[in-house]
């Protein structure tokens, strides 16, 4: 499992890079064709939109994995450790609920999208909604695992504000700061 996770991350990063390259190529060539040859590629916008949506949702998965999502950790860093842990549990439960709603909605949209097709290329719009489905399916176990780690006081648990509280405590200790 330890070998699989970095490989999956690497694959997701390559997929994101590929999506970005396709976007740049589609939009860039369309701009050149419009301004130089007074023509364009009608499918370029649909392809770019599809790649953008997938790139965003894949990036959200990686950001969660690395703890890089924006958060309000300043307030939590000033709370006592027990209250900080309690806030983390509540916020993780709320995230799990939101991800469950996201999963349900993405599933519904994916099913609807199987019979609905894009305007220009005619691909099933389930390809667009499927990105949300994959995102929710990947994020649910990550948030659930971190919640389990918080509840069981596992050393690998990520508790928002923990690092800042630790840094603040050591900055005020004269022995540690020297």
TrEMBL record:
Annotated Pfam families: DctQ (PF04290)
Keyword Cell wall biogenesis/degradation tagged: no
Top-level taxon of the source organism: Bacteria
Subcellular localization, as worded in the UniProt entry: Cell inner membrane
Boundaries of every Tripartite ATP-independent periplasmic transporters DctQ component domain copy: 23-151
Record key words, sorted: Cell inner membrane, Cell membrane, Membrane, Transmembrane, Transmembrane helix, Transport
InterPro entries assigned to the protein according to its UniProt record, in alphabetical order: DctQ, TRAP_DctQ
Transmembrane segments: 12-35, 47-65, 86-103, 123-148
Membrane topology: Multi-pass membrane protein
Subunit annotation: The complex comprises the extracytoplasmic solute receptor protein and the two transmembrane proteins.
Role: Part of the tripartite ATP-independent periplasmic (TRAP) transport system.
Record family assignment: Belongs to the TRAP transporter small permease family.
Protein name per the record: TRAP transporter small permease protein
């Amino acid at each position: 499992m330890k070998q699989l996770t970095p490989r999956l991350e690497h694959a997701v990063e390559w997929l994101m890079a590929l999506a970005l390259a396709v976007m740049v190529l589609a939009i860039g060539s369309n701009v050149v064709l419009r301004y130089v040859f007074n023509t364009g590629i009608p499918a370029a916008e649909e392809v770019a939109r599809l790649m953008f949506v997938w790139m965003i949702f894949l990036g959200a998965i990686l950001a969660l994995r690395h703890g890089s999502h924006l958060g309000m950790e300043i307030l939590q860093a000033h709370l006592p450790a027990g209250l900080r842990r309690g806030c983390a549990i509540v916020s993780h439960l709320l995230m799990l609920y939101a991800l469950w709603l996201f999963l349900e909605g993405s599933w519904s949209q994916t099913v609807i999208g199987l019979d609905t097709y894009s305007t220009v290329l005619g691909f099933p719009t389930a390809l667009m909604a499927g990105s949300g489905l994959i995102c929710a399916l990947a994020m649910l176990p990550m948030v659930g695992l971190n919640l389990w780690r918080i509840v069981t006081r596992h050393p690998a648990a990520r508790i928002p504000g923990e690092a800042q509280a630790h840094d603040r405590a050591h900055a005020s200790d004269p022995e540690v700061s020297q």
